[in-house]
């Protein structure tokens, strides 16, 4: 196991990453509240706007328990933003999918998030690619 790095540069980078994450979540929670959603509901709706998923798939992507996801999907369904439907590949499995209103809400929510978009706009395409590749590498993902 590698020894943790405690040099000033590493500590500064860790602090900056923490600040970025905190600011992103703060803005995300505020944007969700403007749409009368909790942050968790907004994250699930945003995820489902990309593709319908079973509860376990949502839980895996959000790194939480499937039972937590069920309650969130129940509340989104009660508001008419999400519906459950059979998985065409396995009719025993139910997929959560956004309704038209759910997709529209997810789009409005995504469009209202300026924090991540604005600072990134100041970076060139090449700088954003380098940042993306470094973040993927930090997460152990393969960078092509």
Automatic annotation (TrEMBL):
Annotated ranges, domain HTH marR-type:
10-140
Q: Which Pfam families does this entry report, sorted A to Z?
A: MarR_2 (PF12802)
Q: Which GO terms describe its biological process?
A: response to stress
Stored SUPFAM superfamilies = Winged helix' DNA-binding domain
Molecular function (GO) terms for this protein are: DNA binding; DNA-binding transcription factor activity
UniProt keyword annotation of Transcription regulation present: yes
Matches recorded under PANTHER family: MARR FAMILY REGULATORY PROTEIN, TRANSCRIPTIONAL REGULATOR, MARR FAMILY
The protein, known as: MarR family transcriptional regulator
- Which source organism? Streptomyces scopuliridis RB72
The organism's lineage is: Bacteria, Bacillati, Actinomycetota, Actinomycetes, Kitasatosporales
